[in-house]
Amino acid sequence: MTIPKRTGVKVFFVLAVLFTLVSPAQANPRSAAIVIDASSGAVLHESNADASRYPASLTKMMTLYMLFEAIEQHKMTLDFRMPVSAHAASMPSTNIGLRAGDSISVREAIPALIVRSANDVAAVVAEALGTSETNFGRMMTEKARKLGMHSTTFRNASGLPNPEQKTTARDMVTLSARLIKDFPNYYHYFSTQSFNHKGITYKSHNRMVRNTPGVDGLKTGFIRASGFNVATSAKRGNRRVVAVVMGGNTAVARDQHMAQLLDRSFNQGAVHLASNTTESRAVPTVSPSERKEKTRTQAPLPKSTLIAQKTAEPAVQQLAVKPSASPQSQPQKAAMPPNDGWAVQIGSYQESNRARAQAQVAARLIPGEVVITEVEVSNRKLYRARLVGLQENQARTACQSLVRQGMGCLVVRS
To answer: Keyword set for this entry (predicted)?
Structure first.
C-alpha cells in the first residue's frame, strides 16, 4: 500500500516530534543509580535500582571480597604467590600481560584488580580460590546470596561479557557497603591511584577519587552492553555515603552524575525520594536474614522527584545571576530569597563557573531565577546552584521536567 504524499509528511512530522520529546534518560534505558547512608543503610536516592544490569568490572569487587575473606580466614597471605594458567594468560584487555607459568602475589594482585582492572589477574584469583573460574563464579553467587544480593548472578571473576552475569544497582551498593564494613583493614586499597608491575606504571581509571571531595574508593567498570558504571564511597565530616551509578553514556557523564548525587546527599539534611515505592528501603550493611525482593527488568522513571526538608546550610554569600547572563560575566551580590518560597537545586560544584553554567542550562528548560550560593562543607568551598522564586507545585513540576531531560535536581524550601 502506498501512503499519500501529504499523509506521509504528516507521519514524518509526528515521528520527528515524538523523537525530540524523548529525554536523555529515556534514550539511555541502562541508567540506574542508588545512594545510601553507610551507617544506617537508609536509601537517600534511587532510580531503576532494581533493574537488571550487567556489572562489568564492578564484578571485581566481589572477587576482591572473596580474596580479602580468604586472607582473614588465613587461607592466604599477602605474600602468597598464585600461579598463572594458560586460561588466565589468555584474558583480553585490560590486563597486565601475565604469561602462563608466571606467578603473582596476593599483594600485587589487589592493586592490579583495583587500579588496572586486570582481567588476567581476576582469572588467577578465581583459579587460586575456586580451582576453576566457572566454579569460582558459583562461589561468588553463593556469597552474593549470603550478603543479601538476591538479584545477582556471577559467571566469571572479571566482568567480561556474559549474558547470564547480571546484577542491580541495589545489589552493587550492598556489596560496596559490605566491603567497607567487613574489611576495614583493606578498604584503603580502593583509593590507590597507581601501581608498578615489572617496570610498568599503571594509573587508575577512577577519576572520582582524584576529583571529587571526600571520595576515597571504590571501582569503575565498562563493557558495551553495560555502559559506564561506578561504585563510590565518600566521607565528609563524620558522615559517609555509598553510591552506585550504572549505564552512563560516557565516563565523564557517569562521573558528573555521581558527583551531583554525592553533593545532593551531603548538602541536604533529610532527603526522601518519592518514587514508585511508598517507603524508602534500607540497604543491608550487616548480614541479612533471607528476604525476597521484587526485581524488575526495567524500572520506569520516578513519578515524583526529590523532596528535602529545610536545612540549615551555612551560606557564606549568595550570588544571583539572570538566566541570560554571559558565562564570563561576574556575579553580583544579592539578598537571600524569601523563606516562604521554593527552589529547585541543581547541584553543588567546586567551581562557581560550573555551577552557573549548569543552572543556566536548567533555566532554559524551566522557570526561575538563577542563584549561586557559596557554602562550606568539611572545610571545602562549594558553589550551590538553585533556581528560586517558585511556588511548591511549580518547583515540583519543574524538577520533574529536568529529570525527564536527564538532569538531577532537588526540591527545597528557599
So the answer is: Carboxypeptidase, Cell shape, Cell wall biogenesis/degradation, Hydrolase, Peptidoglycan synthesis, Protease, Signal
- % the chain with pLDDT above 70: 72
Query: Where does the pLDDT of residue 379 fall: very low under 50, low under 70, confident under 90, or very high at 90 and above?
Result: low
Closest CA to 55 of 266, 338, 245: 245
Q: What is the pLDDT of residue 266?
A: 85
Residue among 155, 124, 123 at smallest CA distance from 139:
155
Q: pTM for the complete prediction?
A: 0.62
Higher-scoring residue by pLDDT: 342, 3: 342
Q: For the chain, list the domains and their CATH numbers.
A: 32-271 (3.40.710.10), 342-413 (3.30.70.1070)
Q: Are the beta carbons of 310 and 413 closer than 8 angstroms? A: yes
As a whole number of angstroms, the distance between CA 359 and CA 387 comes to 7
Q: In a 3-state reduction of DSSP, which class is residue 409?
A: coil
Phi and psi of 63, rounded to 5°? Answer: -60, -45
| 338 has a pLDDT exceeding 80 | no
Query: Is residue 222 within 8 Å of 233, Cβ to Cβ?
Result: no
The torsion angle over the Cα atoms of residues 336, 348, 284 and 74, rounded to 10 degrees, is -140
Asked if residues 74 and 83 have their Cβ atoms less than 8 Å apart, the reply is no
Q: What is the DSSP letter of 250?
A: S
| Preceding amide of 147 cis, omega within 30 | no
Q: State residue 170's pLDDT score.
A: 94
Check whether 127 has a pLDDT greater than 50.
yes
Nearest CA to 216 among 32, 38, 33?
38
| Residues 197 and 112: beta-carbon distance below 8 Å | yes
Active site residues: 57, 60, 117
Q: What is the mean pLDDT of the chain?
A: 77
Are 380 and 369 within 8 A, CB to CB?
no
Distance between CA atoms of residues 163 and 226, nearest Å: 11
Q: Is 166 annotated as a binding residue?
A: no
Instruction: Work out the average pLDDT over 247-266.
Output: 89
Alpha helices, DSSP H only, in 153-250?
169-182, 207-211
